[in-house]
Write the C-alpha cells for this entry.
Amino acid sequence: MRAYLPDYELRAPRSLTDALALLAREPGGWRAFAGGTDLMVLLEAGLLTHRKFLSIWHLPELKGIEVANDHVTLGALTTYTEVQRDETMRREFPLLGAAARETGGIAIQNRGTLGGNIVNASPAADSPPALLVYDAELELVSTRGTRLLPYREFHTGYKQMNMQSDELLTRIRLPRTTGDLKTYYRKVGTRKAQAISKVCFAAGARMNDGRIADVRLALGSVAPTVVRCTQTEELLRNQTIDEATTKAAREMLMTEITPIDDMRSTADYRLNVAANLLADFLRQLKHT
Amino acid sequence: MKRKKDRGAKGNAPDAAERESSAAEHESCADELIQLLSEDGAARRRFLKQTLLAGGGLAAANLLFSYHARASAHTSAAADAAAAPSNKLSTIPVTLRVNGRDYPLQLEPQVMLLDALRERIGLTGSKKGCDRGQCGACTVLADGHRINSCLALAASYDGAEITTIEGLARGDELHPLQAAFIKHDGFQCGYCTPGQIMSAAGLLREGCPTGMTVRECMSGNICRCGAYNGILAAIEEVRGSKA
Ligand SMILES: Cc1cc2nc3c(=O)[nH]c(=O)nc-3n(C[C@H](O)[C@H](O)[C@H](O)COP(=O)(O)OP(=O)(O)OC[C@H]3O[C@@H](n4cnc5c(N)ncnc54)[C@H](O)[C@@H]3O)c2cc1C
Ligand code: FES
Ligand code: FES
C-alpha cells in the first residue's frame, strides 16, 4: 500500500548551487529526486524509507548532450528517449541506445534518467553494462568541488557507491574512442518490455588481422554490482576466434561472475545464459 | 529474497535498504510486490490508520488532501528558507494547464499528477491501474510527450501543457483515434483505453522511429483483456491516413 504522503518532504531548489548548499548543510538529510521512476515505485509500495527529497528535474546544468572533440557528456537527467534520438549517440555509442530502447516502456523512457539508473545502483539495471564498455566517467559535484571518477570504480558493493551524501551526479562523460567497436547488446528478461533483466550483456571488440585486438565485456544481474569481466577479456586478447578460445572464454566467464538465485531466475540459468551470450558475441564477431 | 550466503554481497537478513532495492528491481511482478508488502507490517498499519481515521470508507488517495501535512511548503522561490515549522497544512500554489484550461490549485508538493487530475480537477478519464508505472492506464501527454501520471509529481508540471483523454474530442466530434478504437473494437472492458488512446496520441506526435514497430512504440500500455489486435488496427489506420 502506498506510503503516507505527508510523511515526505520535497524541495525544488532554484539552482544547482542552492541544491548543493542544501546537501552540504544537512549531510545525508536530503536525496536527489530525478525522474522518480525508481523512487515513486518504492513510495507507492510503502517501501521508501528515506523521507526528504530534493527535486533536481528542472536544473539546466544536469541536462543535455554535449559533443566535444574527444568526448561526449550527457547530463545526469538525460532520458532514455533523448539517448535514442541523439545522432552522435546513435552513431558512436549504439550500446547505450540499445539499452535505452529495452528499458521499461515508452513513458518510462520519456521520464527515466541515466543518472537515476546509475545512482539507484541496481545490479540489474540495463544501461550500466553499456557505460562500462564505453569506459564512462562520472562527474560528481559538491560544495567541496568537482571530481571525475571512472564509472568502473563507482559501485563498490551491493547498493554501495563511491559517492558522498553531499554529492550530486551531474554529468556522464564518454570518451569518443570507441566508435569503431563491433558491439553486441542482449537483455534477457521475461518479456520484451516492462521487464527487469535476468541477464544483461554488453560487449564491444576490435579485430586486427583475424585476432581480437581489443575486447570489453560487461554484464548485469550476475553479481552484486554490474561488472566488467576483465579476466575473460584478458584471456581473449590477441586470440583468434575458434572453438578452443570460445570454450576457454566461456569457462573463464563462468568463474568470473557470481549470480544468485532470486525471484527472477536462478544462478545456474544465469551462468549458462551469460556463457551462451558470450559465445554468440564471439560468433558474430568472427563473421563481421 | 534468497541470496546465497557465499555469493551475495550481504547477509541473509534483509535490511530496509535491501527491501527498498528489491522492490525497485522487481517491480515487474505483482506477486513479488505482494510478497514484499505482506512483509511490511508498517505500511499496512499506516493504511489501516488512514482508513480508520477517515471513517473507514474513503479511498486512501482522497485522504492525502484532507490531512495536516507535516511536510513543509517549498516553492522554488522559498527553497532555501529555513526548515518550516511542522504540523500545519502546507501547500504550494500549482497551476496545472489541462486540455487548454488553467486550473490554479493548492497542493501538497508530494501529490501525484494522476491524483491531482482525478481528485482535484475531477477529470477521471485517466485511470489508476497499478499506481507504479507498469500498466500505462494513467498515460497523459505533457508538452506532447507520454508520461505515466502516477509517477509524476503534479508540482513539477506547473505550467506544462497537459492533455488527457477528455481533451481529445472537439465538441461532439471524436478524435480520429477515438473513432478508430470504436470502429476496430480496440477494447473490451475499456479500463486501459484512455491510456492506450493517449499513448497512441503521443506516438502520433513523437513518431515511431524507423526500425520500430507500432507494437514496440506502444510498449508500456498493457491491456488485461487482450484487445491488442483491435488497438493496433485502430492506430495503424490513423497513422496510415496521416502519412
Ligand atoms: C515500469 C518500470 C519499468 C522499468 N524498467 C526498467 C528497465 O527495464 N531497466 C532498468 O534499468 N530500469 C528500469 N526501471 C527503473 C528506472 O526507470 C530507471 O532506473 C531510471 O533510470 C531511474 O531514473 P529516475 O530519474 O527516474 O530516478 P529516480 O527515481 O528519480 O532516482 C533513483 C535514485 O537515484 C538517485 N539519483 C537520481 N539522480 C541523481 C543524481 N543526478 N545525483 C545523485 N543521485 C541521483 C535518487 O536519489 C534515487 O536514489 C523501470 C521502472 C519502472 C517504474
Ligand atoms: S497507473 Fe499503471 S502506469 Fe500509472
Ligand atoms: S480493454 Fe480491458 S484492459 Fe484493455
